[in-house]
Amino acid sequence: MRGSKMAQDGNGVDDGFVRLMPKEFHATRGVEDWSVLFWGAHVFYRTASFAQAAEFMAGIARAAALVGHDPDVDVRPEGVTVRTFTRVDGALSAVDAALAAAVSEEAHRLGLTSDPTMLQISGIAVAQDANLDTRPFWEAVFGYRRVGDEDLIDPLRRGPHLWFHELRNPRPGRGRTHIDLSVPAAEAEKRVQAAVAAGGRIASSNAPYWWTMASPDNHGVDIAGWADFEE
Ligand SMILES: C[C@H](O)[C@H](O)[C@H]1CNC2=NC(N)=NC(=O)C2=N1
């Protein structure tokens, strides 16, 4: 599958850890609230206030200290998003499952509930001619760093990543860049249907792994659920 992004794109980086595939991650007890998207395992818990989000943040910090692995955390008054990964390309290991379970325990202690419909990772896919390398330009413009041969990422993992792929046959009516959206597997098709209801079109379907969508004026968006089922 084209989608074995994370497997292939450890990109020669063998950090000597035992990779936990998404299917194995999901088989771990206590991580039921989590989804595996591009760049790691993610969860979103709703909070009633910023103060409650901060209280949860303190619990997350305790969980991280206990497990010995630090997550990325996005704190908003509406809720808290947590991401864990082991390798820079988002590949997981057992420690991510342990941290995920510990974070969920803290959330449940506070009575928080997760909402997977709030999870998504967006990226910009840039097509380039086979013998052209435009990565240095994009690296300079964004101030991004390389991960493997195909991706550039925000060093603090905030903005969308850039993915470089070869421009295959010219595709009139579709530009040289498209948007990638990685969502929980259970959300992908709903998102496709919502996009169609809003005037979009399915240009090609690789259901349930990914759909290539076109906006009413032919901008491309790929909606991907595959990261959540990789075995
Ligand atoms: C829809 C499809 O899953 C996406 O276009 C994938 C394909 N493979 C990919 N591979 C890499 N390395 N980065 C990506 O962002 C990416 N996106």
Automatic annotation (TrEMBL):
InterPro entries tied to this protein: Glyas_Bleomycin-R_OHBP_Dase, Glyoxalase_6, PCD_sf, Pterin_deHydtase
Residues of the Glyoxalase-like domain: 136-222
Family listed: Belongs to the pterin-4-alpha-carbinolamine dehydratase family.
EC id: 4.2.1.96
Source species: Humibacter ginsenosidimutans
Gene3D superfamilies: 2,3-Dihydroxybiphenyl 1,2-Dioxygenase, domain 1 (3.10.180.10), Transcriptional coactivator/pterin dehydratase (3.30.1360.20)
Source organism, top-level taxon: Bacteria
Protein name: Putative pterin-4-alpha-carbinolamine dehydratase
Entry keyword Cell cycle: no
Keyword Secreted: no
Catalytic activity: (4aS,6R)-4a-hydroxy-L-erythro-5,6,7,8-tetrahydrobiopterin = (6R)-L-erythro-6,7-dihydrobiopterin + H2O
GO BP term (any one): tetrahydrobiopterin biosynthetic process
Keywords, alphabetical: Lyase
GO molecular function: 4-alpha-hydroxytetrahydrobiopterin dehydratase activity
